[in-house]
Amino acid sequence: MAVVTIAWGCYVMPIVWSQSGAAQIAGYIISGDPFQAKVLTSLTPRLDIIQSEKWDHPSAVRNSAVIRLRIFENEISDGDQKSIDIQLTKLRETVAKSLANAPADPFLWVVLFWLENTQNGYNTEHLKYLRMSYALGPEEGWVAVRRSRIALAIFPQLPPDIAEYAKSEFVRLVDSRMYYEAADILVGPGWVIRSTLLAGLKDATELNRKLFDNTVYRMGYDVSVPGVEQREKRPWD
Fold first, then answer.
1. Are residues 85 and 142 in the same domain?
2. Where are the alpha helices (DSSP H) in 79-205?
């Protein structure tokens, strides 16, 4: 009996440790905390263990998907095509497994949409994944930040219903006091359509409009937020 107990412990403890460690790291990643690329890459063997488990642990697989996403993004930055291809394959497999176990995850649906476009190019067939993400998690701020970046980057190609979702989501970010995140999105993927996004802020509260305007101004940009008095143009504009 003692031998069986020891054997069981040797099998279970590494898995439990891997799951709890993955959960903690995934939480940090979701919060936006930085990690050295080599630190995350070193976790790959443990992620492979989670991926290959006979009995699925939905939360563990999801955490693994979050970590693999950051690893993949790091590989894109490094530009090593071979590593990019390897990590893309692993990420797709993990996302697919996680959604098979827990299909109500709005974050992974938008990740799947992004992956499809990244690997195969934009296709209207992929929009069903983005729609699913909006339907399942319309009010989740940290999901909205990533989803907003992805949607606004291809805004001219979005059908009317999803375009409305994207515009409304931007307003919700401001009204949720995520001023920096919204400002960063505006001056990034949303800059081309900034007039449309800013016009939509008429539906935000006055205080949030003013604080958002201050945030954008501190970032070095002059914009026209509805209901907010415009400052004098900077001398270098």
1. no
2. 81-101, 106-120, 127-136, 141-153, 160-175, 179-186, 194-200
> Could you read off the pLDDT of 68-94 as tens digits, one per residue?
999 888 888 777 788 888 888 899 999
Q: How many domains does the chain have?
A: 2
Tell me: pLDDT of 235 over 90: no
Residue 119 inside a domain? The answer is no
* Burial (CB count <10 Å: 0-12, 13-18, 19+), residue 235: exposed
132: amino acid identity, one letter: M
Q: Which domain holds residue 213?
A: 138-237
> How do residues 23-74 score in pLDDT, each as one tens digit?
888 888 887 777 777 788 888 888 888 777 765 678 888 988 999 999 888 8
CA 96 to chain centre: 16
Entry pTM: 0.82
Task: Give residues with Cβ within 8 angstroms of 120, minimum separation 6.
Answer: 126
- Which of these three, 57, 86, 103, is where a domain ends? 103
Residues 6+ away with beta carbon under 8 Å from 90: 44, 47, 51, 68
